Amino acid sequence: MTLGIGTLMGIFLSVALVNNLVLAGFLGICPFLGVSRKIDMAFGMGCDVTFVMTISGVVTWLIVHGILVPVGNALGDPEALFFLKYVAFIMVIASMVQLVEMYVRKFFPPLYTAFGVFLPLITTNCAILGACLLIDMKPEYQNLLNATVFAFGGGIGFMLAITLMAGVREHIRFSDVPKCLQGPAITLLVAGILALAFLGFAGIGS
């Protein structure tokens, strides 16, 4: 049991900190930069992405291992329906985003208005698709529990990165930034510094 918990904690810390999908994998950069202007917006987007990524990771794992692989084995080729994986991933992610969009629109109208186009664009957030693909590709995530922890950790890592970015950008708004660095330049510079800072978590695995 202890070994199992240690393994799960290792998976969570790896994807949330050491191999953060945004700051280490450079996935989901569009919402990371576009919705990190205010902490409340960034945190809300992080929660939405965490929910979509976790549910999508679980559902796509069940589709692949519960339908596509058994059917492929019955056909004599485990990879016979390989092409359907990507179709399933996109359909599941789009469905989860629609669910989140309806929920936010109904219960948090101001937040829905503040998100604007970025909320439906979660469908095209490559961090979510990347998490589903990594779960499918790596042997250590062929277990449902491991896959769930990986997807949840990936979402928490995204939320952590975008919230930290928003906090720094709110502070920068009241700082004396040189004219040559104002606007996108200082934003990208801060993103690079955050990515370097997260490299320090690599020591956790050593």
Order of helices and strands: HHHHHHHH
Helix/strand-derived class?
A: mainly alpha
The level of helicity is over 70%
Tell me the strand percentage band. Answer: under 5%
N-C termini distance: 23 Å
The chain-level mean pLDDT equals 85
Sheet with the most strands, sense and barrel status: none
Instruction: Tell me the number of structural domains.
Output: 1
How many β-strand stretches? 0
Rg result: 18 Å
Helices, by number, come to: 8
Features:
single chain; 72% helix
What does this structure look like?
By secondary structure, the chain is mainly α. The chain has one domain (8-205). The protein is built from eight helices and no strands. It has helices at 2-18, 29-34, 39-74, 83-107, 109-115, 126-137, 144-172, 184-199. The mean pLDDT is 85.
